[in-house]
Structure formats: C-alpha cells, structure tokens
Amino acid sequence: MKVLVCSRTQVSQFQSRHGVTHVLSQLDPGKRPFLHPQRRVNWLLQNFEDNLDADQPLSPTREHCEQFLSWAKTIPDDAVVLVHCEAGVSRSTASALCILVQARGVDKIDECIQELVAVRPQACPNPVITQFCDEILGCGGELHTKAEAVANAKLLKNFGRIA
Fold first, then answer.
1. In sequence order, what are the residues at sequence separation of 6 or more whose Cβ sits closer than 8 angstroms to the Cβ of residue 2?
2. Can you tell me the distance from the alpha carbon of 13 to that of 61, in angstroms, rounded to the nearest whole number?
3. For residue range 78-118, what is the model confidence (pLDDT) as tens digits?
C-alpha cells in the first residue's frame, strides 16, 4: 500500500496525478472535500476538529481512530491511499502514520515515520490521534512518543525555542 498526504485543496490534483484508489478525508465539522462525486468510492469522511486535547469539544475520538483503522484493514496491498485534512499537516499525517504502522507492523514504526516524512515533510502528527492509535495497535507508547518527537522537531525548526 502506498500512502500519500495532502491538503483539502490538493485532493483532485493528487487523485489525477497519483492514481489514488482510496481516500480518507478528515475535516472540520460541516466541511466537505474537493472530491469529484464519481470518485467517492472507497472513501471515508470523518468530521472533527484538529484539537490537541481529547477533552476539547469536537476532538478526534477513539471511535474515529477505530473507524479509520478498520477501514484501512480492507485496503488491498496494491492500493494508493490519499489521506487529507484541511492543511495536510496534523490530522492527516497522524492518521497516515497510524495506517502505515498497522499495515507494516508495530516493529516498523521508525520506517513508517521515515516514509511519512518523505511524502509529507511538513508532518506534525496530531497527538490525540497518535495516542488513541498507539493504544489500539498495542504499541506500548512508542508510536505516540515517536510521533510527538516528529511534531516537536517540526515546531522547533519552524518557530524556534518553545517556552
């Protein structure tokens, strides 16, 4: 399985250019992707905010994570999966990473992170999603911790020292 990540405005472009077979859309409540109606096959739409705390209203939930991981289990090995959110930075990169770990194996977290960063260098995975998926996939904290390291490194690079 090949996994790609993009922003909402890039969906049509990615579909045409990369032969996308499956799409996971994770958008704010009420938002819809720029997705041609004929291509809404093998498509999962989830609506939740890009919150960094599970206790905030409209945050990603464990059920959202279970839903997209269950959906991803049905995807064939030769599929091209496009995961997107509004900007293609937080929700989508966290979910793409978790899909990769589920597909490749819990012992391949480092390789999955490298693959994610190669396809989406601006990756800053959402910690709520990685925490829930870490628990669901039985990663013992490793997935969440390593995803947080990627996010923190990105924030430090972009914004300097964080107080």
1. 18, 79, 80, 81
2. 29
3. 999 999 999 999 999 999 999 999 999 999 999 999 999 99
